[in-house]
What does this fold into?
Amino acid sequence: MTKEELIKGLNEDLAAELGTIIRYNYQKGKCFGVMGIELREMFDDEIKDELGHASFLTDVIIDLGGEPTTTPKDFGKPETIKEMLELDMKMELEDVENYKKHAQWAEKLDMIELKMKLEDMAADEAGHAREMRRIVKGL
Ligand SMILES: [Fe+2]
Ligand SMILES: [Fe+2]
It folds into this structure.
């Protein structure tokens, strides 16, 4: 495990966050009706969280001597709200696994603040996935 590998991993996380911000903004625009009102609020709340994550990752990558990516990870565009939320859940859970993995890398490099922040972010994403699972259950 090297600092360079960690920077590369964090840049993949950053690309995922940038993609999520764009995906939620896009999906928010595709939500209509009474159900849409609540979903739009949820996406707004989550966009704020993802922006916070992206901002933190950008600072850390720069502090480690890396160059933060500005290219978002690509994402699919399903037609229905149910399919959208299922995609979001899947991608949130992928983020959880990546943050858990990179938290372990940070621990190996003796970076305690980064390790704990990444675990915190894993918990945030798990919370997002759980909220979406509750909505999908009711659809
Ligand atoms: Fe995030
Ligand atoms: Fe999230």
